[in-house]
Each structure stands twice: as structure tokens, then as C-alpha cells.
Design goal:
single chain, 131 residues, mainly alpha, 5 helices, globular
């Protein structure tokens, strides 16, 4: 089932909401590729996207949370650091061993979990911090 943006994901900042919407598009793109048997081919594209996404989005969002003294700022920074460790490990594994079906499924699950447990629980705290 494709993930869809909804108002419960709103951070109150268009820049971050747009970045999260783009992430959802990429997760869905990977899911569609998996359904058509092309998940392995899409993994490198999504890993390239995630590398760029993490370096720009994470630091900007962390700065915003700190600026607004958001209660989830520390949890957010820790989650970002953990995600970067996961991403680095995944990218290194793929570069060393190639893409496997397990890799594709693991990445899909990790990104879906990120959307549900990070964006919807930590990032959305920004909305209350700026009000």
C-alpha cells in the first residue's frame, strides 16, 4: 500500500513538509519498483537520494528545532545520527555485496518505519513549538 501525506504529518514549515512529501514519493517509488520486480535496480537511486536528503534536510531541521527550543530537538538529533549510521552501513553493504532482495525489503521497511515513527512523532512537534 502506497504511503500518502496527510495533515497529521505537518510540521508547520513548508520546507520540511515538502521534503517529507518528497521522501514519501521515493518510498512509494521503491515500493512500486518492488511490485514490478525492479526493486534491486531502484535501490541505488534511492540511496543516492537519501545521501543528499540527509545532508541538507537533517541539519536544517535540527537548527530549526534548536531555534524554537523544541522539546524533541535532542531526540531528533539522535534519530538523525542513528539514521545516518544505518544509511552508511546500508550503502557500504550494497557497494561491497551488491543489492539483494533482503536489502530491498530492509530498506523499504526502514523508510516506512522512519515515516511513521520519526516524522509523525518527532518532526511534527515543530508545529507546537512555533505556536
Amino acid at each position: 500500500m502506497a504511503l500518502q501525506w496527510n495533515d497529521t504529518m505537518t510540521t508547520g514549515f513548508k520546507e520540511y513538509d515538502d521534503a517529507h512529501k518528497t521522501l514519501i514519493l521515493w518510498v512509494n517509488k521503491l515500493g512500486d519498483a518492488m511490485k514490478s520486480g525492479k526493486g534491486k535496480e531502484e535501490v541505488m537511486n534511492i540511496l543516492d537520494f537519501l545521501g543528499k536528503y540527509a545532508t541538507t534536510h537533517f541539519s536544517s531541521e535540527e537548527g530549526c528545532m534548536n531555534k524554537h527550543k523544541c522539546s524533541t530537538a535532542l531526540a531528533n538529533a539522535k534519530a538523525h545520527a542513528d539514521f545516518l549510521k544505518y544509511f552508511t552501513k546500508m550503502k557500504n553493504d550494497v557497494e561491497k555485496n551488491g543489492v539483494t532482495t533482503v536489502t530491498v525489503i530492509e530498506l523499504q521497511n526502514a523508510l516506512s518505519d522512519w515515516l511513521k515513527n520519526h516524522i509523525m512523532k518527532i518532526d511534527t512537534a515543530l508545529l507546537t513549538c512555533v505556536k
